[in-house]
């Protein structure tokens, strides 16, 4: 009997659920200890070699520092006495604008199938050509709901938390080294929290009620990066990103930059195109294809937990690199021909 695409998807989902039940507490704790060791070693490495790694960037920042400080002073004075409005502008409107500008461009390609210069880089070549308009409308409605009714109220709450901690909209910009250190900490916290919360939502008791909605897209597009159940959006999408600035009491400029980076990064991970000179989306695209592999952002915890073992045996793994030419990786590293072809 021929297995349909839907039956394959259901089988993969059952496999994902089963893998969560089979994992023992001892094995999980061992992997957590390994993760702490690797991440701790990375922090020590960055501390030891920070000066040499950041010397050129610091030189640039020092030369242009007055420009950025003067620019921020003008913005600060324009909003003087209205810190809440300034915080909402920097941490909600600016990142949301970055998200929709990028996704607006991607949606033009997804819906029209043009230009061919972009579509030739599609990872799953036989999918979304063009995207299903009914499915897309549902995704966009959910994304807008999450942004307006989930993200926006959370940002208001974050403002009060950060105001209690200190002056998030202070007149002085953070130093270059401090901002760089903060971004590194944010990235580490995101990797840890996203991996474990994402994997939690793959538990059989949660998956079918919450996370299955996101996995309706086995071939994702950029806008579905925040197409999720509201509970998942809070715990797995928002929390890993917002926790860092709250813990460190970060300045609004660093927080705004981080939110923009996080939204652009997750859009690229879901966009479905492996474009030249942009981060590889192969890792997360494979997660949507197979369900029970590649749960994290950077893949560090996936390697430690062996949740990328199947991915590392595929052509997608061979393509999981920065593309530095104009030749699509599906051409330079083609799929292995199936038997009989």
UniProtKB/TrEMBL annotation:
Record's keyword terms, sorted: Membrane, Transmembrane, Transmembrane helix
Keyword Metal-binding appears in the UniProt entry: no
Intracellular or extracellular location(s): Membrane
A UniProt-annotated Pfam family: FA_hydroxylase
Region listing for Disordered, in residue ranges: 1-26
Domain Fatty acid hydroxylase, first and last residues per copy: 184-307
Transmembrane segments: 35-57, 84-109, 143-164, 176-196
UniProt superkingdom: Eukaryota
Protein name: Fatty acid hydroxylase domain-containing protein 2
Source organism per UniProt: Characodon lateralis
Gene: FAXDC2
């Amino acid at each position: 009997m021929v297995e349909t695409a839907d039956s394959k998807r259901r089988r993969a989902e059952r496999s994902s659920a089963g893998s969560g039940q089979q994992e023992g507490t001892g094995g999980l704790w061992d992997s957590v200890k390994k993760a702490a060791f690797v991440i701790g070693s990375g922090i020590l490495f960055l501390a030891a070699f920070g000066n040499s790694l950041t010397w050129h960037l610091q030189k640039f920042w020092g030369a242009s520092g007055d420009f950025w400080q003067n620019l921020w002073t003008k913005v600060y004075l324009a909003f003087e006495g209205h810190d809440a409005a300034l915080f909402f502008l920097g941490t909600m409107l600016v990142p949301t604008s970055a998200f929709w500008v990028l996704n607006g461009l991607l949606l033009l390609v997804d819906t029209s199938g043009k230009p061919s210069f972009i579509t030739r880089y599609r990872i799953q070549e036989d999918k979304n050509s063009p995207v299903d308009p009914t499915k897309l409308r549902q995704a966009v409605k959910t994304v807008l709901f999450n942004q307006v009714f989930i993200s926006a109220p959370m940002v208001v709450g974050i403002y009060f938390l950060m105001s209690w901690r200190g002056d998030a909209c202070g007149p002085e910009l953070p130093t270059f080294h401090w901002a760089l250190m903060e971004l590194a900490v944010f990235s580490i916290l995101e990797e840890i929290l996203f991996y474990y919360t994402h994997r939690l939502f793959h538990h059989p008791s949660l998956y079918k009620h919450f996370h299955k909605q996101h996995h309706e897209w086995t071939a994702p597009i950029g806008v579905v990066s925040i197409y999720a159940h509201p509970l998942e959006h809070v715990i797995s999408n928002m929390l890993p990103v917002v926790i860092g600035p709250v813990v460190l009491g970060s300045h609004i400029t660093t927080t705004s930059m981080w939110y923009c980076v996080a939204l652009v990064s997750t859009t690229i991970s879901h966009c479905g195109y492996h474009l030249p000179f942009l981060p590889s989306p192969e890792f997360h695209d494979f997660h949507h294809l197979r369900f029970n592999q590649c749960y994290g952002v950077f893949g560090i915890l996936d390697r430690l937990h062996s949740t990328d073992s199947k991915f590392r045996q595929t052509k997608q793994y061979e393509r999981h690199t920065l593309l530095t030419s104009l030749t699509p990786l599906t051409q330079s590293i083609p799929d292995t021909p199936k038997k009989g072809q």
